[in-house]
Amino acid sequence: MTGASLIAYLRVSTVGQGRSGLGLEAQRKAVQQFAEAEGRSIVAEFLEVETGKGADALERRPQLVAALAAAKARGCPVLVAKLDRLSRDVAFIAGLMAQRVPFIVTELGADADPFLLHIYAALAEKERSMISARTKSALAAAKARGVKLGGYRGGPVPNAAAGGLAGGKAVAETADAFAGRVAPMCRELQTKGYSLRGIAARLASDGIRTARGGAWTAKAVSNVLARAA
């Protein structure tokens, strides 16, 4: 029956995550377990793979639009694993509420009032802003102390072969210092549920480069955490 139906919406934030399935199985498992526990059935699943750019514009989320249309046609809710799979943006969440399609977030439960979605979205948005502010403040403080952010950007990277033991030691010390500054930010993001890929994307969006001045990857984040540990 319609009252027992659910429309599942899954989302990953990068094409790479979409191809690898990173995060998708966890979301799918969460919505399936929720449906089973509630005695309801998922009648359709919509999967979105979108980049960070324009992530909060509904026109850039065709699968979400399709999920909304399917839910309206069936008169049933859209089910998501976590609120951030919809958005961390309060205005975007408010716009979705205006569609008059009920949303169920598995981690909040079936009886969560729609107003709570606004509150949680506001908290997530504020948290994101605070993390960004702390990151920028830490970088500014390091720069004021004369630390060269970004490591060896603009010049050759010294190594043991080229510069002997002294060169190798300098590389290690610089890498350790860099890891000591960045790892706490990475750990904080981990506690918020960010994957290694998500942390890499977040560092990049905050204008932070790797120790060699390059782009962040999941492996680079893992290396920083391991070195700091």
Summarize the structure.
By secondary structure, the chain is α/β, with parallel strands linked by helices. Helix content is 55%, strand content 10%.
Distance between the termini: 53 Å
- Kindly state the percentage of residues in helix: 55-70%
Low-pLDDT stretches? 151-163
Described by strand count, sense and barrel closure, the largest sheet is: 4 strands, parallel
**Helical region count?**
8
- Using the alpha-carbon principal axes, give the shape: elongated
Structural category: alpha/beta
Number of strands: 4
Strand order of the largest sheet: 2-1-3-4
Q: How much beta, percentage-wise?
A: 5-15%
Compressed to H and E, one letter per element, the order equals EHHEHEHEHHHH
Radius of gyration: 21 Å
Mean pLDDT equals 76
Can you walk through the features of this model?
- About 6% of the residues have low confidence.
- The chain starts with a strand and ends with a helix.
- Helices cover 55% and strands 10% of the residues.
- The protein has 229 residues and is α/β, with parallel strands linked by helices.
- A four-stranded parallel sheet has the order 2-1-3-4, with helices on both faces.
- The chain is elongated, with a radius of gyration of 21 Å.
Topology:
Layout: E1 5-12, H1 15-20, H2 24-38, E2 41-49, H3 62-74, E3 78-80, H4 90-97, E4 103-105, H5 114-144, H6 160-191, H7 196-205, H8 218-228
Parallel strand pairs: 1-2, 1-3, 3-4
Helix pairs in contact: 4-5, 5-6, 6-8, 7-8
Supply database-style keywords:
229 residues; single chain; 4 strands; 8 helices
